[in-house]
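Example 3.2
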Amino acid sequence: MPAPQLVIFDCDGVLVDSEVISNDVLARSLTAHGLPTTLAEARQSYQGLLLTEVVTKTEAKLGRRLPHGWLEGYESERADVFRRELKPIDGAAEAVESIKRAGVAVCVASQGKLGKTRLSLELTGLDRLFPADTRFSAELVARGKPYPDLFLLAASAMSAEPARCVVVEDSPSGVTAAVAAGMRAIGYSADCDEGAMRSAGAATIRSLNQLPGLLGLG
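Structure, written as tokens:
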């Protein structure tokens, strides 16, 4: 395959090791508000969803609304734990640097808000690799993943043809969005369901160190 014009990275679970942190905070918060939830259950039920979708799904299970301000409280607590514990995914910086040295553009496209992506990149030192104008969020489009809108927005803003874009994801919904956008999908499967991502249409890797070689860049 020809070298890509653009590599689009998901943030959570691909660039930064945030999924366990986010879902642990979520599980503890839901439990405290009357919906007993383990970390494993939070990851299975909510990982990859927009926070508005998390609220809707939780309230359906509870049969009532969450307290006013619950979402803001969750985001604040998550940010506090990020500041203490968040780390980059092993090999993330090296893989991105190798891709950029090969003359291929990179960007980030996340379900999370731009503020969350900014904080995550700054805390892990990856912000130097992704300037503000290369960060995209589902809050900028009508529909988040698994719809293609976010990835198509990123490609357009980065002046790249969808067919020449590669998306690196860690969830089946993200892979589905990439395929729907007409892009090549690579699933980073070190901490997620490799089979589900392959079924959704991704080639999979278990280390980001494999990524440049898989793209024909290293």
